């Protein structure tokens, strides 16, 4: 997948998150951040390249715009 940040509405230097990547999600409403792993997308977003499904460290699942995800560590594979 392309790292073309402009296509995703992200800032320069942004890295495209892939399945298996450890990512950080910054909350816009507070200073806290969440950590999670990008998982295979559900059937509703699997054809939408702008969104990712993330399993958070607290066990919750979220669907978020890829531009809001910061890759901390690449998954193996």
Q: Summarize this, please?
A:
The chain has 77 residues and is mainly β.
How would you describe this protein?
- The protein is mostly beta strands and about 80 residues long.
- The chain is about 5% helix and about 35% strand.
- It contains one helix and five strands.
- The protein has one helix at about 5-10; strands at about 20-25, 35-40, 50-55, 60-65, 70-75.
- Strands 4-3-2-1-5 form a five-stranded antiparallel sheet, with no helix packed on it.
- Strand 3 (about 50-55) and strand 4 (about 60-65) form a beta hairpin.
- The two termini are about 15 Å apart.
- The mean pLDDT is about 85.
Percentage of residues in DSSP E strands? 35-45%
Order of helices and strands: HEEEEE
Percentage of residues assigned to helices: under 10%
> Averaging pLDDT over every residue, what do you get?
87
Order of strands in the sheet with most strands:
4-3-2-1-5
Structural class estimated from helices and strands: mainly beta
SS summary, helix count = 1
Shape: globular
């Amino acid at each position: 997948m392309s790292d073309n940040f402009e296509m995703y509405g992200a800032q320069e230097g942004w890295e495209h998150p892939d399945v298996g990547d450890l990512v950080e999600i910054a909350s816009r409403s507070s200073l806290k951040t969440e950590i999670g792993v990008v998982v295979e997308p559900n059937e509703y977003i699997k054809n939408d390249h702008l969104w990712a499904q993330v399993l958070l460290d607290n066990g919750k699942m979220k669907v978020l715009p890829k531009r809001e995800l910061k890759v901390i560590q690449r998954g193996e594979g």
